[in-house]
Write a structure and sequence with these properties.
With 447 residues, the protein is of the alpha/beta class. It has 3 domains: 140 residues, HUPs (Rossmann fold, 3-Layer(aba) Sandwich), CATH 3.40.50.620; 119 residues, Alpha Horseshoe (Serine Threonine Protein Phosphatase 5, Tetratricopeptide repeat), CATH 1.25.40; 141 residues, DNA Cyclobutane Dipyrimidine Photolyase, subunit A, domain 3 (Orthogonal Bundle). It has a 6-stranded mixed β-sheet with strand order 1-6-5-2-3-4, with helices on both faces. It is globular and about 65 Å long. It starts with 5 loop residues before the first strand and ends with a helix. The mean pLDDT is 97.
Length: 447
């Protein structure tokens, strides 16, 4: 494997014990650089290999909607690992306690983990590293160009990171090797995972799961095939039209790592479509998505006003006392009780489907800024609603998208206006000029 895909988080003497993959962000068996690297180490040392997943009973406002999608995908991971003679262990509790405990109980020799830029995940990693006495390696199995290789700093915008990523794509956009059946058997007991019982340990709000999209690696590949055959050819025309079904619907699978972005990119590269559609989708899949990881990795205030660029904080501060024609509470937003039928339809889409159209997410967040008392309150409400209802909540794309909409992240200054200052503005009439607003509203109200 390309050595730039992984980095050493803790140096320590290697002991002759199993290699463990601490799976977290990338929940799949195929096309998984972290799992491939862990097996590579285990085969070199002729030791067993196991995958552990540490389930935290409550995490950043996640509900049964997101936990259900994740657990069903993990059940499939367990089944697919068994075919490769690799045991799967589902732990529950704080990772900084449970991972070191599992390492000592099983005399593991090396720990490998997948990369995640979010602040809380980095804190978990730091907590584990302090308590273990074995080497710890981190593999970026989520991005095509590893986050730390793409850039050593927070990038200003897409135009600054784009040439860096494109320069490295020939090195990193390669076909995955196959994961082999592991030649060394696990010596200890492998408990049967009590999947129904695990759900009872969760401390989450029971926002209902959705049934229009099914979780798991197999389903992700099916959705990708549908996209390649039916939607990618017309992507440039339909991607920004919320009134038609033109998006890939891959974001929940990418969020939970049930499909690799690199696999998607390879299949899109090989698809028989025009260059404009291919380039438009790959810009979003690679450049914009990896820019979001860059923002969250290098800016620990990614979900706060303090994380906005200086020019945006300055202009928002200058307009703090501007009069709000409309002002709504969190509950009014949550239950779609605003004066704006388009905004209400977008909120309804998110609540009922668990996935709002990408174009509407921008309008939705900007109106929260317009109708709340402060940018701090706006970002708090937007994150709360996004993470409560979206299948892909608690994701760098979500935090970055909200930051772009409310705080000018990765954007530039525009013409000054009340409340927004120089933050880019979006309006109902502007949406009307771009797509069939009435059809979108009718479709969402019929859910």
């Amino acid at each position: 494997m390309n050595p730039r895909r992984f980095r050493t988080l803790k140096e320590a003497p290697t002991r002759q014990g199993p290699v463990l993959l601490w799976m977290s962000r990338d929940q799949r068996v195929n096309d998984n650089w972290a799992l491939l690297y862990a097996q590579e180490l285990a085969k070199e040392r002729k030791v067993p290999l196991a995958v552990v997943f540490c389930l935290v009973p409550d995490f950043l406002g996640a509900t049964m909607r997101q936990y259900g999608f994740m657990l069903k995908g993990l059940h499939e991971v367990e089944e697919n690992l068994a075919k490769k003679h690799i045991p799967f262990f589902l732990l529950t509790g704080p990772p900084e306690d449970e991972i070191p405990k599992f390492i000592e109980q099983n005399k593991a020799g090396t720990l490998v983990k997948d990369f995640d830029p979010l602040r809380f995940k980095c804190q978990w990693t730091g907590g584990v590293a302090k308590k273990i006495g074995i080497p710890l390696y981190e593999v970026d199995a989520h991005n095509i160009v590893p986050c730390w290789a793409a850039s050593p700093k927070q990038e200003f915008a897409a135009y600054t990171i784009r040439p860096k990523i494109k320069r490295m794509l020939p090195e990193f956009l390669e076909e995955f090797p196959k994961l082999n059946k592991h030649p060394v058997s696990w010596q200890g007991k492998i408990p049967e995972t009590d999947w129904p019982g695990i759900q009872k340990t969760l401390k989450v709000v029971s926002i209902p799961e959705v049934d229009w999209i099914k979780p798991g690696e197999k389903q992700a590949l099916r959705i990708l095939k549908i996209f390649l055959e039916k939607k990618l050819p017309s992507y440039t025309m339909k991607r920004n039209d919320p009134a038609v079904d033109g998006q890939s619907n891959l974001s929940p699978y990418l969020h939970f790592g049930q499909i690799a972005a690199q696999r998607v990119a390879l299949e899109v590269e090989n698809a028989s479509v025009d260059k404009a559609s291919r380039d438009a989708f790959l810009e979003e899949l690679i450049i914009r998505r990896e820019l979001s990881d860059n923002f969250c990795f290098y800016n620990t205030q990614y979900d706060k006003f303090e994380g906005f660029p200086e020019w945006a904080r300055k202009t928002l501060n200058a307009h703090r006392k501007d009069r709000r024609v409309y002002s709504y509470t969190l509950r009014q937003f949550e239950y779609a009780k605003t004066h704006d039928e388009l905004w209400n339809a977008a909120q309804t889409e998110m609540v009922k489907r668990g996935k709002m159209h990408g174009y509407m997410r921008m309008y939705w967040a900007k109106k929260i800024l317009e109708w709340t008392a402060s940018p701090e309150k706006a970002i708090e409400i937007a994150i709360y609603l996004n993470d409560r209802y979206e299948l892909d909540g608690r994701d760098p794309n979500g935090y970055t998208g909200i930051g772009w909409s409310i705080g000018g992240v990765h954007d530039r200054a525009w013409n000054e206006r009340p409340i927004f200052g120089k933050i880019r503005y979006m309006s109902y009439n502007g949406c009307k000029s771009k797509f069939d607003v009435k059809k979108y509203i009718q479709d969402m109200n019929s859910w």
